[in-house]
Design brief:
Blueprint: E1 3-7, H1 12-23, E2 27-32, E3 46-49, H2 55-65, E4 69-72, H3 79-84, H4 86-106, E5 111-117, H5 140-159, E6 162-168, E7 170-172, H6 190-198, E8 205-208, E9 220-225, H7 226-243, E10 247-251, E11 256-258, H8 259-270, E12 276-279, E13 288-289, H9 294-300, H10 309-322
Parallel strand pairs: 1-2, 1-4, 2-3, 4-5, 5-6, 6-10, 7-9, 8-12, 9-13
Antiparallel strand pairs: 9-11
Helix pairs in contact: 1-7, 2-4, 4-5, 6-8, 6-10, 8-10
């Protein structure tokens, strides 16, 4: 069996990755401590409840399942919280990842696909953002991701640990089969927030800042569908297994949309009025983040198939209608 360890595999992206791997001949082994993940989302592969901080458990998993590669989704990812609770982020995203990497090297598991983030760039010095642009993260979340990237480069040179770092822009949308969707507690992502408001689960949404130097004053982000993310992970995995070539890739649609544009599109798609209120800027939020896809297209042949923002919102809306209370529906 081609066993792939998915750490954080009960979360939004990790759970869909398990489905995608299963469809493509791989066997996901899921490790998740369920702090933010949902056991109900683990429908493909073996589930083990536990943490990547537990080196004894990791050693047992590596020995029992003959893992050939690891996909790492087990990070805390709330930008605002990382500013107010940085130690929480450095402990989980950095220290616990070092424990995982130590166990991988010890057990000779030398292939890793790492979920990195566009947060490593901070305020961009050019658009669209390419892989070689200056990295100056402005929040502890982004700093923790960049630190791991640097560690992976060192481990590649010292231990031949091969890696692909995938720098997500904004993961969004839902499984077209409506089996996997976005269910965070607390929810901070704009698309599920506006859809929850359309469903009457919230009275209104909060827009953090309308005084940015953008066309309507609200932040602009690049949204990427989870199906496209999963395809990029599979292509990265096969690059590692077949060629042992490490790399870093930015992953986005190449197009940016403001918070107000997302709100207006959601109103159109749901045929609902969605109330909002303006609040002050959230510390740690860059004004604009838009990805270049040139490198990942040239080296992996990847390009988004669900890049249209209306398709992204429509798939998410179908999932939220079916699962109005998330996985507890």
């Amino acid at each position: 069996m081609l066993n792939i360890l998915i750490v954080g595999g009960a979360g939004y992206i990790g759970s869909y990755m398990c489905k995608y791997l299963s469809k493509n001949g791989y066997n996901p082994i899921v490790l998740d401590n369920l702090i933010y993940g949902h056991k109900e989302a683990v429908k493909w592969g073996v589930f083990i409840e536990g943490s990547i901080a537990d080196s004894t458990l990791l050693d047992q998993i590596f020995r029992k399942y003959q893992i050939i590669a690891v996909m790492h989704f087990a990070a805390f990812c709330y930008v605002g919280e990382s500013v107010t609770e940085p130690l929480k982020y450095y402990q989980n995203n950095l220290s616990n990842t070092i424990t995982l990497l130590n166990c991988m090297v010890k057990n000779n598991v030398l292939n890793l696909v790492f979920s990195s983030s566009c947060a490593i760039f901070g305020e961009s010095d050019g658009l669209p953002i390419t892989e070689n642009q200056k990295k100056n993260p402005i929040n502890p979340y982004g700093k923790s991701k960049l630190m791991v990237e640097k560690i992976l480069d060192d481990l590649n040179k010292a231990y031949n640990l091969n890696y692909v770092c995938l720098r997500y822009f904004n993961a969004a949308g839902a499984d077209p089969d409506i089996e996997v969707g976005e269910d965070h507690i607390p929810e901070t992502h704009i698309i599920p927030l506006v859809l929850q408001t359309a469903l009457g689960k919230k009275d209104s949404i909060t827009i953090f800042g309308d005084d940015y130097s953008t066309k309507d004053g609200t932040c602009i982000r690049d949204y990427i569908h989870i199906v496209d993310l999963a395809q990029a992970h599979l292509l990265s995995l096969e690059r590692l297994l077949n060629h042992k070539l490490s790399a870093n890739y930015n992953l986005g649609s190449g197009t940016g949309y403001s918070v107000m544009e997302i709100l207006e599109l959601a109103c159109k798609i749901t045929n609902k009025k969605i109330s909002y209120r303006i609040f002050k800027r959230r510390e740690g939020d860059p004004a604009v983040l838009i990805s270049s896809n040139e490198k990942v297209f040239n080296e992996l042949g990847w390009e988004p198939k669900f890049g249209d923002i209306e398709t992204i919102i429509e798939t998410a809306w179908k999932w939220h209608q079916k699962m109005p209370n998330g996985y507890k529906s």
